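Q: I have 158 residues here and want to know how they pack in 3D. Can you give me a structure?
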Amino acid sequence: MQVLVNKFVTIALLILFSFPVFSKQIYTIARAPQSSYAKTEKAWTPYVQYLNKTTDYSFKLKLYNERNKFEQDIKSGAVDFYFGNPGYGIVGHLNHGYIPVIRSNKKKLQGIIVTAKDSSLSKVSDLQGKKLVFPGKSAFAASLLIRHFLLTDSDVTV
Protein backbone atom coordinates (compact mmCIF):
# COMPACT_ATOMS: atom_id res chain seq x y z
CA MET A 1 0.00 0.00 0.00
CA GLN A 2 2.84 2.43 0.88
CA VAL A 3 4.44 1.87 -2.56
CA LEU A 4 1.13 2.74 -4.22
CA VAL A 5 0.82 5.94 -2.13
CA ASN A 6 4.42 6.93 -2.95
CA LYS A 7 3.79 6.41 -6.67
CA PHE A 8 0.55 8.41 -6.46
CA VAL A 9 2.27 11.29 -4.62
CA THR A 10 5.15 11.26 -7.12
CA ILE A 11 2.80 11.34 -10.12
CA ALA A 12 0.65 14.05 -8.49
CA LEU A 13 3.72 16.22 -7.83
CA LEU A 14 5.00 15.75 -11.37
CA ILE A 15 1.62 16.77 -12.78
CA LEU A 16 1.28 19.69 -10.36
CA PHE A 17 4.73 21.12 -11.06
CA SER A 18 4.44 20.68 -14.82
CA PHE A 19 1.85 23.48 -14.95
CA PRO A 20 3.34 26.88 -15.89
CA VAL A 21 2.01 28.48 -12.70
CA PHE A 22 4.53 26.48 -10.68
CA SER A 23 7.45 26.59 -13.06
CA LYS A 24 9.79 29.55 -12.99
CA GLN A 25 9.56 31.68 -16.14
CA ILE A 26 12.81 32.24 -17.97
CA TYR A 27 13.15 35.72 -19.46
CA THR A 28 15.18 36.21 -22.61
CA ILE A 29 17.68 39.06 -22.90
CA ALA A 30 18.69 39.70 -26.49
CA ARG A 31 21.83 41.58 -27.44
CA ALA A 32 22.13 43.28 -30.81
CA PRO A 33 25.13 42.01 -32.77
CA GLN A 34 27.94 44.52 -32.57
CA SER A 35 31.19 42.59 -32.45
CA SER A 36 31.91 38.88 -32.84
CA TYR A 37 29.55 36.37 -31.30
CA ALA A 38 32.31 35.09 -29.00
CA LYS A 39 33.22 38.58 -27.73
CA THR A 40 29.59 39.46 -27.09
CA GLU A 41 29.01 36.17 -25.28
CA LYS A 42 32.11 36.70 -23.12
CA ALA A 43 31.03 40.24 -22.22
CA TRP A 44 27.36 39.52 -21.52
CA THR A 45 27.33 36.07 -19.91
CA PRO A 46 28.64 37.33 -16.52
CA TYR A 47 25.91 39.99 -16.48
CA VAL A 48 23.15 37.42 -17.06
CA GLN A 49 24.70 35.10 -14.45
CA TYR A 50 24.74 38.00 -11.99
CA LEU A 51 21.04 38.68 -12.62
CA ASN A 52 20.20 35.01 -12.11
CA LYS A 53 22.14 34.96 -8.86
CA THR A 54 20.92 38.24 -7.35
CA THR A 55 17.26 38.35 -8.38
CA ASP A 56 14.28 36.06 -8.00
CA TYR A 57 14.05 35.73 -11.76
CA SER A 58 15.69 33.53 -14.37
CA PHE A 59 17.29 34.96 -17.48
CA LYS A 60 18.91 33.51 -20.58
CA LEU A 61 21.03 35.33 -23.11
CA LYS A 62 20.13 35.31 -26.80
CA LEU A 63 22.87 36.40 -29.18
CA TYR A 64 22.79 36.88 -32.92
CA ASN A 65 25.15 36.47 -35.84
CA GLU A 66 22.82 38.49 -38.06
CA ARG A 67 21.39 41.94 -37.44
CA ASN A 68 18.27 41.05 -39.49
CA LYS A 69 17.32 38.20 -37.15
CA PHE A 70 17.74 40.49 -34.12
CA GLU A 71 15.52 43.10 -35.79
CA GLN A 72 12.87 40.47 -36.59
CA ASP A 73 12.79 39.33 -32.95
CA ILE A 74 12.39 42.92 -31.75
CA LYS A 75 9.61 43.65 -34.24
CA SER A 76 7.74 40.46 -33.35
CA GLY A 77 8.22 40.68 -29.59
CA ALA A 78 10.02 37.34 -29.48
CA VAL A 79 12.30 38.41 -26.61
CA ASP A 80 11.51 39.83 -23.19
CA PHE A 81 14.36 42.35 -22.94
CA TYR A 82 16.91 43.58 -25.42
CA PHE A 83 19.95 45.81 -25.53
CA GLY A 84 20.38 47.82 -28.67
CA ASN A 85 20.82 51.32 -29.98
CA PRO A 86 18.18 54.06 -29.66
CA GLY A 87 16.89 53.26 -33.14
CA TYR A 88 15.94 49.78 -31.94
CA GLY A 89 14.19 51.42 -29.01
CA ILE A 90 11.88 53.17 -31.43
CA VAL A 91 11.35 50.05 -33.56
CA GLY A 92 10.63 47.91 -30.50
CA HIS A 93 8.19 50.42 -29.03
CA LEU A 94 6.28 51.02 -32.24
CA ASN A 95 6.02 47.36 -33.22
CA HIS A 96 5.56 45.64 -29.89
CA GLY A 97 5.29 48.24 -27.11
CA TYR A 98 8.74 47.78 -25.57
CA ILE A 99 9.68 50.55 -23.17
CA PRO A 100 13.19 51.58 -22.07
CA VAL A 101 14.13 50.50 -18.55
CA ILE A 102 17.86 51.32 -18.45
CA ARG A 103 20.20 53.41 -20.52
CA SER A 104 23.89 53.87 -20.87
CA ASN A 105 25.49 56.59 -18.81
CA LYS A 106 28.11 57.22 -21.46
CA LYS A 107 28.25 60.57 -23.23
CA LYS A 108 25.94 61.37 -26.10
CA LEU A 109 26.08 59.25 -29.20
CA GLN A 110 28.01 60.70 -32.11
CA GLY A 111 28.43 59.65 -35.69
CA ILE A 112 31.28 60.37 -38.03
CA ILE A 113 31.71 60.89 -41.74
CA VAL A 114 34.98 59.60 -43.15
CA THR A 115 36.69 59.98 -46.51
CA ALA A 116 39.83 58.52 -48.00
CA LYS A 117 43.05 60.08 -46.72
CA ASP A 118 43.87 61.53 -50.14
CA SER A 119 40.31 62.78 -50.81
CA SER A 120 39.62 66.36 -51.85
CA LEU A 121 36.58 66.37 -49.53
CA SER A 122 37.37 68.32 -46.37
CA LYS A 123 34.10 69.86 -45.20
CA VAL A 124 30.46 68.81 -45.08
CA SER A 125 29.44 71.11 -47.95
CA ASP A 126 31.89 69.22 -50.20
CA LEU A 127 29.45 66.29 -50.01
CA GLN A 128 26.80 68.12 -52.07
CA GLY A 129 26.04 66.06 -55.16
CA LYS A 130 28.25 63.17 -54.04
CA LYS A 131 27.11 59.60 -53.46
CA LEU A 132 27.34 58.55 -49.81
CA VAL A 133 27.57 54.98 -48.53
CA PHE A 134 26.15 53.99 -45.13
CA PRO A 135 26.93 50.73 -43.30
CA GLY A 136 23.30 49.80 -42.66
CA LYS A 137 19.90 51.38 -43.08
CA SER A 138 19.06 51.05 -39.38
CA ALA A 139 22.51 51.59 -37.86
CA PHE A 140 21.76 54.50 -35.56
CA ALA A 141 25.00 56.48 -35.17
CA ALA A 142 26.53 55.28 -38.42
CA SER A 143 23.52 55.96 -40.65
CA LEU A 144 20.39 57.47 -39.13
CA LEU A 145 22.17 60.09 -37.03
CA ILE A 146 24.35 61.17 -39.96
CA ARG A 147 21.38 61.40 -42.33
CA HIS A 148 19.47 63.46 -39.77
CA PHE A 149 22.42 65.81 -39.41
CA LEU A 150 22.77 66.22 -43.17
CA LEU A 151 19.03 66.91 -43.56
CA THR A 152 18.67 69.35 -40.66
CA ASP A 153 22.02 70.94 -39.85
CA SER A 154 23.76 71.28 -43.19
CA ASP A 155 23.20 72.64 -46.66
CA VAL A 156 23.71 69.20 -48.19
CA THR A 157 20.69 67.69 -49.93
CA VAL A 158 20.37 63.95 -49.37
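Q: Anything worth noting?
A: Strands lie at 26-31, 58-63, 81-83. Residues 37-54 form the longest helix (18 residues).
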